[in-house]
What does this fold into?
Amino acid sequence: MNTILLVEDDEIIGPLLRDYLGMNDFEVSLAVNGKAGLAAYKSGIFDLCILDVMMPEMNGFDLAIDISKINPDQRFIFLTSKNLREDVLKGYSLGAFDYILKPFDSEILVIKIKNLLKKTAKAERNNKIGKYLFLFSERKLIYDHKTIKLSQREADLLNLFYENAGSVINRDVALNCIWKSDNYYNINTMDVYISRLRKYLAEDKNILIENIHGKGFKLSVNNK
It folds into this structure.
């Protein structure tokens, strides 16, 4: 289920939009001002942020700037009654995927959100591994808004584990997929890379890369 941070100070629009998005299979966290929105963002991982522009404590533009300092790849949609050209340009310059004027059609907004998330998910191949966000195309692991930069082979190996989570990956298959050879040198090298991945993922105790004796490896994620 995709997660959305909705930051909207209007006492009517905020709850109504939160509930409508929830009815359309989104998990929504609602914050009623910019300061509360930043605190909510720091406590979770969100696929999309929908930000009102005019808010108390901190406006939507400033909130987007602060969020981008935490995660430069975060996606935004701005909601506003301000249609001045300079405001629209500022919104897009901050990385907004859309700048929607109030009043708006909630059904159209949902379609836009679904299209956006489908398009960007295909392009970026963002995967969740336990409490981590794995950005394959960016070669990044994000946990608690801390970013670990992966090498290309680390990213390829982790992606192989992710796509086969719960199943045993034969050692020779992994070697030939990533290193194109199963010689002795590459066997030792892969063991080093797996040790690195275990270290990177150590913050979530529910994630385990198991060594299945005589067979290979298995990525397990206990979500209970």
